[in-house]
Amino acid sequence: MTTKPKGTSVSSSPLPPAMLRAGRVVAWAVGAFLVFAVVVAAWVGVRGWMAYQHLSRVEAGISEASSALASDPGAAGAIVARLATDASDAHDLTSDPVWHLAEGAPWVGPQLEAFGTVASAGDALLSDALLPLVTAAQDTSFDALKPVNGRIDTTGLAVLAQPAQLAASAAAGASDQLQGLNRTPLVGVLARAVDKSSTVFEQAATSLDALSRATRLLPDVLGQNGERNYLLLVQNNAEWRSLGGIAGTAILLKTNQGAISLANTESGTSLSSGIKSPVVDLPADVQNIYETRPARFFQNLTQVPDFTFDGPLAREMYKQRTGVSVDGVIALDPVVLSYLLRATGPVALPDGSTLSAENAVKTLLSDVYQRYPDPSAQDAFFAASTGAVFNAFLEGRGSTVSLLTNLATAADQRRVLMWSADPDEQAILEGSSVAGELPQTDDDTARFGVYLNDGGGSKMSYYVKPDVSLAWDQCAPDGRNGPRQLTLRMRLTNTAPTDAETSLPRYVTANGAFGTAPGTATVVNNVYLPEGFELVSAETATGTGPSTGTFEGHQVLTFGFQLLPQASADLTVTVRATTTASKAEAFVTPTADAGIDPTVKATCEATGIATLQ
Predict the structure, then answer these.
(1) CA-CA distances (angstroms) from residue 468 to 449, 465, 492, 559, 608?
(2) What number of helices (H) and strands (E) belong to the chain?
(3) Between helices 155-179 and 108-123, what is the axis angle to 10°?
(4) 469-491 pLDDT, tens per residue?
(5) pTM across the whole model
């Protein structure tokens, strides 16, 4: 039998007492952490579910608010107020200290942060932007902005100027919250929801920015301080120029104390006749790419893809030809006329036909050449059609909200352009889609310009389909700088019938007058590279390379294509830079297709494609 030494005790554990105490502390700490984690998870889960319910009601109610705004603007205030309350509640539920603590957790943390950011941005957009604007507009009927006997009351615009500016600022901040979110760790439904929300918020910010600029600019443009003269250019997309098409029709538009009138109409052909030399001395870099054609032919005014350059040039050319000095220049195309007809309804034309939103583009850019072989008759029909649409607008036909919505769509597609001779007014236009400036690359987005010009003196551009896509070779890790490549691809297809030489009007094919076989489409393509990017490669599918030039800090590549009916041609351009940009855009010449946005977009995760069908 063993004898226990005096002063000792028997223990069932071989560990020293100090280690036992430490173990108990650790066990308690682990247990406490697990309890805390469960509590945090439950807290975040419950509040997240409640926030999700609020945001779901916001998403479901947006269409109701839009419908109310279009049909009964007075009722929209109550709906937006209800949605703003839901958005504010969602923000409160996802912004407490426990939620922020959970955002630091691995994997789930970035998901919670993204969810909270969407809630915060939604609160800012609805509570800080839309609700104050709608409230301010309660006493201003949208019908007050509708022309009455050819006059628009500018006081309604003045009332909205400040709230619109504040709303635009708040909406931009909300959009920036989502744009600045790191999407790399996001997964599944949440990743898709953030992408969708980001697009919606960006569109809202763009629309409110346009409204803010319009409320500050239009009172003076409408002549609240005295008579104004504007040159209105109607571009013809059947014969491409960089910003849309040839300036086929020029209309002198007068405004005075809100009254609007169309004073005189000239064809681009008549304004070009008799010009022997350029009306201004063009810079050498412009001549290197476009020669002197933009300053010798009125139809070529928008060949240079920068309306801040084209506007002053158009003003000078019009002044030399007519003696009238205008206060600004506005450009639009037949697609814009079709958008206006969505609001006004169909209009009757002098020849007994009817122009509608559905047939306007085809009538003005294709059928007219079958109906009127004489170019002077075509010009007259074009001018009469444009005048009829504007007169319907000036008579106040249709819904004002529909009119504003469709004009906003046209402006966003860069189909409505404006330049002002007043420096203060031009400063308001700068940076907007209406200014018609060259694409600018920034830290987030690399931007190309893809500009198309008809090189055969024909109207064959109506049949040419451009497909443009962009793709990054890799993503920037966590937004850090890194050398990466960006590739632009374009396919041009001549969709004209195989017998185009004989089946299409001679005026459409140009009948070989400028050295191009009838039915063949000649396209001159200028690709403006993103600033700060170096060219890696550029060639067509046949292996031909471009001529090169520079304009306003952009390297410009020029390609030429001859497209037989039903034939295609391909182009690939790859550039490289050390950049944080994860997005890419290409500004493409607006064409006759009203259903496509001429801005191609892509991120490093996906390829964006614009197709004309």
Answers:
(1) 11, 10, 9, 15, 8
(2) 18, 18
(3) 170
(4) 999 998 866 556 778 999 999 99
(5) 0.86
